[in-house]
Amino acid sequence: MLRLKNQYNFMRPIQMVDLIAQYQSIKEAVNASVLQTIESGAFINGPAVQNFKASLESYLDVKHVIPCANGTDALQIALMALGLQPGDEVIVPAFTYVATAEVIALLRLKPIMVDVDPNTFNITAAIVKAALSPKTKAVVPVHLFGQSVDMQPLIELSEKHGFYLVEDNAQAIGADYIFDNGRRQKTGTLGHVGCTSFYPSKNLGAFGDGGALFTNDTDLAATLKKIASHGQSKRYYHDCIGVNSRLDSVQAAILDIKLKKLDHYAQARQSLANYYYQNLADITALTLPKVQPNSTHVYHQFTLKVSGGQRDALQQFLKEQGVPSMIYYPVPLQAQKAFLGLGNTLGLELPVTEQLCKEVLSLPMHTEMAADQSQYICDTIRAFFG
Asked: Domain total for the chain?
C-alpha cells in the first residue's frame, strides 16, 4: 500500500468537502459582494437578502421563498404554519438526520418513524400508506443524499387522505423530479411547503448558517413569513406566536453568487459520481447508489453499502491511507435516546434502516476534487478488497 500511496503527490489533502478550494474559485466575486454589503450597513433583511430571495424564486420556479436562519428553523416554521395540534402524527423516515424528527417532537407532535427503500434510502408512497392513521396530519419526505423521493404517488396519496407534504430538501437543492408525463419540477417545490439548509457543506452552502422555505401557496407564504418574524404582519403588530429566524445579508450575498454556479457544481458532483461508478462497480462487496428513474441526482453524498460486516474495517483502512469517509447515519432515529418513550410503535422494528446504519459509507464528494485524488480513492478501496 505504501508503494501505491507514493505514486501520488497531492497539492492538498483529500477532504470530504473542500470549501477552501471552492472559495478560491469565486473569491474575487465573494469578497467584493461581502464588502459591498458591509459598507451598505444593511445587515438584516437588506437588499442582498431580497436579491437572493428573488434569484432563488426564479431558479426554483416557485412563487415564494422565505429565507430564515437555518434548515432546522425552516422545518419548525413549516410545521408551525400548518396549524397542527399536539398529538397529531407526522410521518418521517427513520433514516435521516435528527433535525427532521426533532422539530416534530419539539412542537409536541408525534413523530411516526418509518422504514425506507433499501435502494434509494428514501420513503415511498407504499411505506407511507401503511403508516397512515386518522391522526396523520403531515408527511416529511426527505430527499436524501441528493435525489428526490418518488413524489407523484405521494402527492396523489396526500390528495386522497388530506395530509400535508413538508419536503426536507436540505440535501437535494437543484435536483429535478420528473413526472410520468415528462414534466420536471425542482425538489422542494412539489409539496405544500419545502425546507432547505444553507449549512456550509450543503450543495448550496453559505459561509455560516442559513435556511429557507419554499411554497406556491400565497396565503401559506404570508403565514410562514409572519412566523419567522416574531409572528408580526407589520412591525410591532404580532398576530401569532412566532420565532426569530433571519438569513443575514452577508450570507445572502454569498449565496446569491453561489446560486449562479449551482448547476455547474451539480455537474462536477455528477462527474465525480460517474468516476466512482466506473471504477468501483465490479467490487462485489459494494452496492453503489441507485438512481431512481423519476429524479436527477445532485450527489450531496455518494453513499454506498458495504456488505459482509466490512464497513468499519474499510473506513479505518481509508483513514490510515489519508482518505476521509463518513457514516450517515450510524444510529437510526427510532433508537436514539431522545425519542424513546414517545409511543412511536411503528418505529420499533425497521429492518432496512437498521441494516443501512450498519452498512452505509459515504465517500468524499465535492466540486473541487482533482483527478489524481479520485483515482487514489478508488485505488485505495480496491487495495482493501484485494
From this structure: 2
- All residues at 6 or more sequence positions from 332 whose CB lies less than 8 Å from its CB, including other chains: 94, 95, 113, 350, 353, 354, 357
Distance of alpha carbon 115 from alpha carbon 227, whole angstroms: 32
Give domain status of residue 18, yes or no. Answer: no
| 219 and 317 belong to one structural domain | no
Q: How far, in Å, are 43, 93, 206 from residue 209 at the CA level?
A: 15, 24, 6
Round to whole Å and give the CA distance between 285 and 265.
30
H or E element in which residue 364 lies: none
Would you call 216 exposed, middle or buried from its count of C-beta atoms within 10 A (0-12, 13-18, 19+)? middle
Contact between 67 and 210 under an 8 Å Cβ cutoff? The reply is yes
Domain boundary among 259, 289, 304: 259
Distance separating alpha carbons of residues 124 and 139, to the nearest angstrom: 11
Q: 370 and 272, same structural domain? A: yes
Helix (H, G, I), strand (E, B) or coil at 30: helix
Residue 306 falls within a domain, yes or no? Answer: yes
Tens of pLDDT, residue by residue over 247-262, are: 999 999 999 999 999 9
CA 183 to chain centre: 23
Residues in the chain: 386
Integer-rounded Cα Rg, in Å, for the chain is 21
C-alpha cell at 222: 404570508
Q: Are residues 61 and 28 in the same domain?
A: yes
**Which residue is listed with cell 395540534?**
85
User: What are the pLDDT digits (tens) for 96-145?
Assistant: 999 999 999 999 999 999 999 999 999 999 999 999 999 999 999 999 99
Q: Give the domain range for residue 343.
A: 2-8+261-385
The dihedral region occupied by 273, where left means phi > 0, alpha psi between -120 and 50, and beta the remainder, is: alpha
User: Amino acid letter at 126?
Assistant: A
User: Of 259, 282, 301, which residue sits at a domain end?
Assistant: 259
Q: 93, 113 in Cβ contact below 8 A?
A: yes
Does the pTM of the predicted model rise above 0.90?
yes
CA distances for 112 relative to 153, 284, 290, angstroms: 20, 35, 26
CA distance 32 to 330: 41
For residue 11, pLDDT beyond 90: no
Question: How far, in Å, CA of 1 to CA of 322, rounded?
Answer: 12
**Distance in Å from the first CA to the final CA of the chain:** 11
